[in-house]
Structure prediction request, 301 residues.
Amino acid sequence: MSSGVLDELVRIRATTPERVQEALTARRRRPLLSPTGTLFVVAADHPARGVISAGGDPVAMADREGLLDRLVLALSRPGVDGVMATPDIVDDLALLGALEGKVVFGSINRSGLNGAVFELDDRPTAYTPEAIDASCLDGGKLLLRVDDDDETMPATLVSCAQVVTEMARLRLPVMIEVFATTRRDGRVVTVEDPVALIRAIQIASALGATSAYSWLKLPVTTEMERVLRSSTLPTLLLGGDPTNADVVFEQWRQAMAYPQVFGLVAGRSLLYPRDGDVARAVDLAASIVSAAGDAASGRSR
Prediction:
């Protein structure tokens, strides 16, 4: 972005805030999937949950100009279909004109702050289904971390189910990011067990009055074929640890070969790569998704 853009965004927000909705309403939209039946989305909803570290910098994602600069660059690269973010970031990108011809998913439940005692109490605090529709976005995203020992789980399940039902009523897709979790030394950690993830997928798949518009957003794990066969919902892969990029990219490449997987939703591993080359990281991920789409072009999606 050019110098002074951050100041201009602040000025617009202070003097003509109606321009945010105008930009969202006027933006050029496109079908959800690419012509080859894939979807590659850059994720940027981490800061709203208090996750602001990246690339060894404890506050990297809190630099809004730096984050927007990386997002604008990522969205300009060939093969990138869109972005998933909270309203503050989506609004900035809309004002910058970076969402033209892109798919935009609004992130919904960000109340489970990273490291908090209430981390698994993931109620909606960002977009609502109605706001996603009114903002002319293309879908929404939920986070569901399943922990049988957490007392907030019933409230989280109810709120997620309500969102799924309402998104379906509006005929908007909702991706449900699913983890099996537990607490160790007071911290929420992911259970690295495919059976636990399969169980969590069953719970997520049944949320809401209909699953017609539900998608899954899943981590790459062992026994991936078995995991994917546990549901008929279309699946997107989520990003991994940016400090182990080579391993993550190879995991994506292998998992994209399964017919249930339609694409990728990744954030920090692409926006804050260890070598600092955002364009290279994004292009490599895009090539993985594109290759999978080409390979799948002969089968019915």
User: Anything to note?
Assistant: The CA atoms of residues 8 and 14 lie 10 Å apart. The beta strands are 39-44, 82-85, 103-107, 139-146, 174-184, 187-190, 214-218, 235-238, 261-266. The chain has a mean pLDDT of 94.
